[in-house]
Amino acid sequence: MTERTMPANPVTLADHEARARARLAPDRWAYFSGGAADGITLRANREAWDALRLLPRVLRPLAHGHTRSTLLGRPLVHPIFLAPVAYQTLAHPEGEIATALAAAAQQAGMVASTQSGVTLEAIAAAAGPASERGPLWFQLYLQPDRGATLALVQRAEAAGYEALVLTVDAPVQGARDRERQAGFRLPPGVRAANLPDAAPVAGKAASTDALCGGLAAQAPTWADIEWLRGATRLPLLLKGVLHPDDARQARACGTDGLVVSNHGGRALDTVPATAECLPRIADTTGGAWPLLVDGGIRRGTDVFKALALGAHAVLVGRPQIWGLASAGAAGVAQVIRLLRDELEIAMVLAGCATLQEVRDSVLLPAATSGIATARSDEAPTL
Ligand SMILES: Cc1cc2nc3c(=O)[nH]c(=O)nc-3n(C[C@H](O)[C@H](O)[C@H](O)COP(=O)(O)O)c2cc1C
Q: CA 310 to CA 304: how far, in whole Å?
């Protein structure tokens, strides 16, 4: 949403977006909202969810419906996670502390970024005991030296994080033209609080020497995944996988699941929308292996569609920042609650009492879209 007036009473995620945009300085807005290069993937993520149509069933029993499920052996009250988003103190002075409080209050999963503006220990303390909140996971960027990576992993284990999410799609930053045009720089006092001052920050700005100047030599490889698998007792998920062959290899390496993601269109522009990649990956990995997806999820119907395409849960990135900038912890909590309420409305109206019934339901491509139907073998004859 770009040209809307600011809503007094936000009732959609787009309303929170308008409020956040009005509150944030233009360079910070460019940092949070921008995509890479021409924003083709950024737009495609949204368009792909919109291009799928729900095909509801009627007259089904819904009396005992719920949104509960189990992921990595842990109960989920609903399937909505907050994606790792760096430097949240740019959006609100309480940053990730406010986000953690909101996630806990709403029983949402939260994935804390390596590049959080506050420490991973402070986030875990704010999130509270595991029995009273949703899952708390730590997003890891491999550090150039394994000792530094291991130190982060051990801190996350000690602080009570329940899984590691290794991001593999951003060894260097994408061509983030919008934020550069806006002159965005981290202001004094905002830094990656988990890392020592001098530590190189992963996903750091690419320049013309990204490949030849040595940064690519630090990019993680499959050998690092095997090393990491052996270095932690926590479940390990990879984030940023789009190709079915990579999904297959991730599974063969002993990882515990994937986040199908293109970094919210911020890494390599012109890669496909995640809604386009998800069904192929789900076909490759089978129905039970944990799959999550993010990118452009803004409505409960998008969550529904993601599950119908084979995901077990979804993550939202920018919307948590909209809530945070617009009203701190209360804003983030409202963003989660709105999405969850919309998911429940969609489930009732589509005739699905459980997430399993959502996963078994059928989507159709919009007449104008080139996106394949979720699972073509299940498409009904109309
Ligand atoms: C401002 C910003 C910062 C991000 N920082 C991280 C990060 O530190 N680590 C990471 O794995 N992904 C990061 N991401 C990507 C998100 O985790 C997620 O993949 C993406 O935002 C999902 O798309 P959406 O914003 O359309 O929901 C960031 C995204 C944004 C918008």
A: 10
CA distances 246 to 95, 221, 231, 288, 306, Å, are: 34, 12, 21, 18, 20
Q: Which CATH architecture group holds 13-51+78-342?
A: Alpha-Beta Barrel (3.20)
pLDDT in tens, 296-346: 999 999 999 999 999 999 999 999 999 999 999 999 999 999 999 999 999
Q: Which residues contact 338 (CB under 8 A, 6 or more apart)?
A: 11, 12, 13
Q: Give the closest residue (by CA) to ligand 1 atom 5.
A: 85
Question: Could you tell me how many helices (H) and strands (E) the chain has, helices first?
Answer: 13, 12
Q: pTM of the full predicted structure?
A: 0.95
DSSP 214-269: SGGGGS--HHHHHHHHHH-SS-EEEEEE--HHHHHHHHHTT--EEEE--GGGTSST
Domain boundaries, the chain: 13-51+78-342
Q: Active site includes 263?
A: yes
Q: Is 263 in the pocket of ligand 1 (CB under 6 A)?
A: yes
Tokens of 46: 């949204």
In angstroms, what is the span from residue 351 Cα to ligand 1's centroid? 32
Beta bridge partners of residue 52, listed in sequence order = 365
Ligand 1 close to Cβ of residue 84 (< 6 A): yes
Residues 309/363, Cβ–Cβ less than 8 Å: yes
Q: With a 6 A CB cut-off, is 86 part of the ligand 1 pocket?
A: yes
367 C-alpha to ligand 1 centroid (Å): 31
Question: Which are the contacts of 303, defined by CB distance < 8 A and separation ≥ 6?
Answer: 79, 80, 297, 314, 339, 342, 343, 346
318 lines ligand 1 (CB under 6 A): yes
Q: How far is the CA of 263 from the centre of ligand 1 (A)?
A: 5
Closest CA relative to residue 155, chosen from 110, 116, 119, 190: 119
Query: In the prediction, which pLDDT does 376 show?
Result: 42
User: What spacing in Å lies between the alpha carbon of 365 and ligand 1's midpoint?
Assistant: 27
What distance in Å separates the CA atoms of residue 129 and residue 133, rounded to the nearest whole number?
7
User: Measured from the CB, is residue 139 less than 6 Å from ligand 1?
Assistant: yes
Ligand 1 within 6 A of CB of 85 = yes
Q: Fill in the amino acid letter for 47.
A: E
Residue identifier of the C-alpha nearest atom 14 of ligand 1: 85
